[in-house]
Write a structure and sequence with these properties.
The chain has about 550 residues and is mainly β. Helix content is about 15%, strand content about 45%.
Amino acid sequence: MLRRPEGRGELEGPSPSGRRAPQNAPSPASLDRLPAPLYPSRSRGSPTAEGAVPEADQRARSAAWAALLLLLPGCTVGIGRGPVTDFFVKDYDLPDYAPGVAAFRAERQRLEPTPETGALGGMAGAYAGGRRRAWRAQAAGGLGGLAGALVAQEFSQAETEPPLPAEYGSLSLALPIVVTDPNKGPTFGLLPVSVLQEGNRITNIFAPDFTYNEIDGIGSVFRMLRFFSRDSFLKIDAGSSTEGYNQFKVHYEQRRLGPNRFLYFRGLFRYDTDLSQRFYGLGNDTDEDAESTYVFRKTQAGATIGLELPLDVSIELRERVVSYGVGPGRLEDVASTKARHPDVFGVNDGRLTVLTHQIRLTYDGRDSADNPTEGVFGQFTYDVADNTLGGSVGFNRFRLELVAHLPLWRKRFITVFRVAAWLMTGEDIPFYELTSVGGRSTVRGYGEGRFVDKNGFVANVEERIRLYELVLAGNRIQVQVAAFLDVGRVYAGGEGFTLRDSKFAVGGALRILVPDSNLVTSIDMGFSDEGSAVFVDLGYPF
């Protein structure tokens, strides 16, 4: 059985089936077999009498570290064009591949007019003129001349434009994973990354991870983020672990649809099994000692259709159906939620289905949705959970969010203000659908969903500072740091608004940005009265 030592450090106990490490939040996931040196093991064979490591183990460790050192610096490789590589790498905003000036000249010579082709062209011109009721020769010649001029213009333009390169560029490297998750504890592993690009634009990122965690065990998650163009992308995550963690997700987005290209679409399907979810009960003043754990299974499908309006406004409709299941906790040293909080709705009520209809109104005056440096963002969302068309519960949820970005000194400093509020009405709402405070996008000094109740608010202030910029494999890379202050609170239904007993967190973040591809990698660390929490993810928290 696992035992919690004094303080909140790592748990002691057997490793392979050990279920628990420190406390609380999200990590980049699960993995496959790792070389021995990349994670600690509590039993790795008996050392010799003198405590020396056997020679075979020494050779294995040396080989593993040598392989890691070779991977870490990264390498660049050219990938030839073809039907398969085009599907995975091509930027469909760019024209089709052009082989070069010499090939165009040869093609032009092959198609150069001869007496025969000239006669045929004259006949075609005369026919076209006749169809237009213009029998005069000048009309036929004029039409033929116009066609010739258009073809000549196309060849001339093709000759002067630089051809696309015959190969796609790529950058491959491997990064170590050392993450402390407030819920899972420490995770160790390896993250190989392959970045594929056409020109200066990143078009695909492969980022599988191979990790070890005392709760999830050994596992792997495959990740692909494919940018077909600036208006469409596909994201796929798929993985599992030896202890039963699962993550499968497909997300597709397409903008600029329809006759006037004002429509956009988003589709999502996901299935998750999380072995380390925590619940402390309902309310803003729940004690750490009320901690419990449960296995959370969620299957979700959703579709969104949106309309872009003038003045940076958009409106969208979304349909979402989610099936939830709560299982007994598996951690030996933490009580199961089913036993500690049996009367909370959703804990012992079997599998529940939540069907929601959503309408969302958004104003987005930022200069970029993914990597904003200035502008204002506002969003109002209204959800209706429907229990008449197959859903298990019915409720209403209102959400309002405002974010402002204020740049200074040529955008080297960016001050970000954000406030968000949630209001829910209805009875018998499952605890996992209620408002929660704590986690990467709310108050970063606590684990995900630390405080739960019907209503709530958060306010954040963050100062983002660009330290320096470099060029790596033809891509601009920016290094950014940030300092932040987060505050938030949850409220019971009918409880009036007050700032008393609000939860605070301070901390900092390190971000790596690729401005040309709107890619942001973020590591955020927050501190609160319950300790610290580290979050690693793509994109900004808000």
